[in-house]
Write a sequence for this structure.
């Protein structure tokens, strides 16, 4: 059950990843009262802003401002309020001990039941793969009592779920979880529309939502599912009943 | 939630498979009021009764009687009442159109939300692999309106879960589901004790339950889990929240 | 280059598989003058005619007539003229020596450069998996001089391509070939519309074509690709240059 | 250590498989005094006698006689004396309960420490895959006390090793065992020369032996290895030291 | 055969890994006269000392002292005398050129026939994965004549074996080698008891030893095996006979 | 079709990799008029010059001079003129932001249709794996408009092909492309002969070429193929017809 005791941390490599790949999940958890925290590691200024750089005299600062405004609009559509942009350089995104401490501290602050981030493989996107390992390692470290960070205390192991990569089959993606997003789909659509320069992706992830909805119906026999998002699991499901 | 609207069908290749591999799941679902139906396809007279055949003058009929009494005792421990033994020959177990109809009809009668049976690979046990495909195919056929069987009506697609095979890693088994069986573990233990001739397996699956309990704690951070059973999934999880 | 020396054999398990999964490929090869032969193994009366069986008093004969008319309409849209329906029972489709001879003979008659059929794995559809092995084995046997069938002569090894299954990732499908079908997409769409009772599949495979078109553009940098179909390969590509 | 207490059973699908894929292993075990039993399931008259069928007026009987003489010559080169040809039809090779009993009885007679046969996957050769499963299942059944066959007694589980298939990578073959055959390589070469019509295979498996010799040297640092054969394992190595 | 010409190098990421995962192997090789060298890369002060950090006023220095005394006791139980602790920081463990030189030099000094260390994948433990690659790369470099390190000479390629990770199936672990440790199991047990704070792991690896003993018996038919440890192989087995 | 509009970039980790693994491909593309650019990242002085270091008083400078002369001779045999040696240290080869810029700039200068380099896995050679990722990441970055490098402009996504590693099966290599090199095989042979100190590799890759030629014939039925080279693909084939 999703409620105000549910803590969710979403870690997105670039400005729009969280919308295409997890916008429905975010909107749903916000709607049902969960505490959703969104960390966006970079503006995607180098790797995911092709159109903006086609403008004469474009500057890095201006690209970031532009992406900032899109992020603001999209997060408003999804209803998520705790949003941080860490402004790492992308394409290549690199990590070090300092950044590891930053994320471990964040995890210990949020105390997430659920972490949603990039899965381990993403063909065509080296940043997504690096972020996946970064978040996973930080999640493990955050549970260890010997990793001493002032003002923080260990948390219990969060469940971790991986976004669907753009080309799933050549990224070894298995849809372990198909999440029904029918009731918030209009919000996701609105959030996607905030990234107007990427009309081809708005279409693409619109179609995806319909396909995953079809899979949801076929796997469950439940025809009330309309649109869905798919995620991989990092660990087995553990619980008291078959779900 | 497990309750009296929950229908479960367990299909076991031989006399004791359902105890070693799913006894905890069965006891738990029975305890919480689900309708659990158990189909045992064979007595395991040829493949899983080595000790009995060491007795001079042993006969097939007698072996079956012996296994029948063990099954009766074990199912009593688990609390499951709807039990059928179909008395197929084992080692090799073979299937045909008649048997397919028999199982499709059973599925349509039980209307299971959940089917529990052998997973697709089981090193050292060709019967388990054959049963896995048999059950899967029957589950698919049972949903199809064009598969006309008098007195039956189509059912919606059941969720299917696979037993853990004896040697998991060389059988390509992944524990997709780790089911907490702490509250019914004494019942499972009692059921296992009904198969006294196989003391090495009683020990083995006792240790397994503890190891899976350790995994349950490590993956969830929940230390109330004591013993557990592991299962594979045949399809993705579909639902309204991350579990 | 596709021309009148190109022989293509398509083997479809059920009435509509060749449309959803390979309609674009068929239309394209027909359009460019290839000799396309289509073998439909069954009417899909049991496994893929759910809607028809909802009609009171429905009969098997009538279902087949209905599917026949849909096939006629769809093949007309695609322009394929050499069409055979072998009327095997589906759900379960079973094979034997006689049927193997029938297909080996057909392959030796058509002398295909290319065979298009179901790939080896298809979650939720046991028939598709059985057909995949049937066609593969027949293709191998057809090249062997010792497989003596009156009135036939051995052929050289055809290239074999596998249809995309309905749920690709859980069917271990890799898109080895992404085939541009932009120029014949209207024909495929028209062919799909011939199966009106399955509106959800018309939508589904419409979306799929757009997604695969996106992949085609991303993998190649060629923005002229609009819609595409994906296929697996049964063997490596062999040739004189990188393609 | 190989000696007169070592029992080996080799099961070959067709007339020459045991030479190309395991001739070195056979010669070596014979040379060191092991009891090597060779079962050849078919003459390969349909699937592996292309050249013979190019002769006008060729008959099945004559093809078998020809293959028989080649087998006689090759086994003489390798020094193996216990040779049986079971004359199953090949391409497709099919199995049933009778054949299963025949092989279980043979295994119980030979009491093999080691069984060498085809591995589970062999692209382009459906017979090899079917034989692999047939032999594996028989090996399992032969250990089971409930599988009653007059005049036989159960045996302990043999180690099973799989031949290298013709195209290893597309057959998912891993070389778990690289067996040094340097001291008997001349014998293997002589045995291969008995199949003169297949000069391309004589060359092919000659090159393979050299490549596997290179791998043997590289993996071990032992430069005395010259030629080698590769095999897969069906189960883990079990023993008292790292080998 | 294990004797005084057998050189073994064990590389353990943290203080106790070598006991849980390879204590039996170590005791066995020591017992039979091999030269066993143990390198422990870290005290596991940050990642594997949770209980110690629960003590008020705990310091890093004190944690290390505590782990040192446990290591001393455990190695004494196993009989291994050549023990070095390199005191790298753990959680995250990082490597660089200097550390690579340190390990290459060590390998060239020990001249190991066998290296035992962590396997390539270990869910929940990023350090183990990093150590696996570190050791593998060092093993390769140590054989290369162009890697010039004063006072060292190249060695031949060692066989490398991987420890069983804590959750084997989700770490893609295959038990390539199942090593009988029955004769030294009491020593392993005693060594495990030296890590009293981790009672749950003492139980866990006790159960594991029994399960692997069961697998050893089942795979070999040899009932003298009682307890065992499982390892993966980094390369194929190379040798003169099937083992 | 290969012609003067075809741009090819080959990136080789060490001095001779491009010859053993892609010499045929290079010679063929040069012969048919393509613009072939060869970047050799290191002289292989540390990892692939074992024999040279056996000479008393050997120096790094001298080893490099020696390798330079071999490279000059071999590239002459293959006909490739655009050759750069970047003189990175090998064994371990390490990468950083500067080197990434260097390769992105090179890709943007060459505008390759085809990039040929090491595949992602190569057992026994950590450098090859590191180079594979380096080249892949650079290829992705080179297409991104936000990766600003003075004097360069983005290019479209190149097709990327992976060399066959030395031990293919344990390096998870699949031969996606089998390239006929019959017409240039004498050139490849001559280029290989330039590395006289490595006679065992000259033999090895000579045998390989014959084996791959056999696979080319078997997969295609085209007997004109004599020698071939195998490559993996990094992405699916995209195009207008089945090839």
């Amino acid at each position: 059950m999703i409620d105000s005791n549910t803590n969710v941390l979403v870690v997105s490599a670039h400005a729009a990843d969280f919308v295409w790949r997890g916008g429905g999940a975010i909107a749903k958890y916000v709607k049902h009262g969960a505490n959703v925290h969104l960390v966006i590691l970079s503006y995607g200024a180098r790797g995911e802003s092709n159109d903006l750089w086609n403008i004469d005299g474009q500057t890095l600062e201006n690209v970031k401002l532009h992406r900032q405004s899109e992020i603001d609009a999209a997060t408003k559509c999804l209803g998520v309020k705790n949003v941080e942009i860490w402004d790492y350089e992308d394409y290549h995104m690199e990590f070090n001990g300092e950044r590891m401490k930053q994320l471990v501290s964040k995890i210990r602050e949020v105390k997430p039941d659920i972490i949603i981030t990039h899965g381990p493989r993403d063909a065509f996107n080296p940043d997504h793969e690096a972020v996946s390992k970064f978040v996973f390692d930080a999640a493990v470290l955050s549970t260890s009592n010997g990793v001493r960070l002032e003002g923080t205390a260990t948390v219990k192991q969060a469940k971790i779920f991986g976004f669907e990569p753009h080309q799933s089959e050549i990224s070894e993606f298995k849809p372990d979880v198909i999440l029904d997003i029918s009731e918030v789909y209009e919000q996701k659509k609105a959030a996607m529309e905030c990234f107007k320069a990427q009309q081809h992706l708005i279409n693409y992830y619109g179609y995806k939502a319909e396909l995953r909805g079809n899979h949801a119906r076929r796997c469950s026999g439940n025809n009330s599912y309309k649109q869905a998002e798919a995620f991989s699991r990092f660990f087995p499901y553990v619980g008291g009943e078959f779900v």
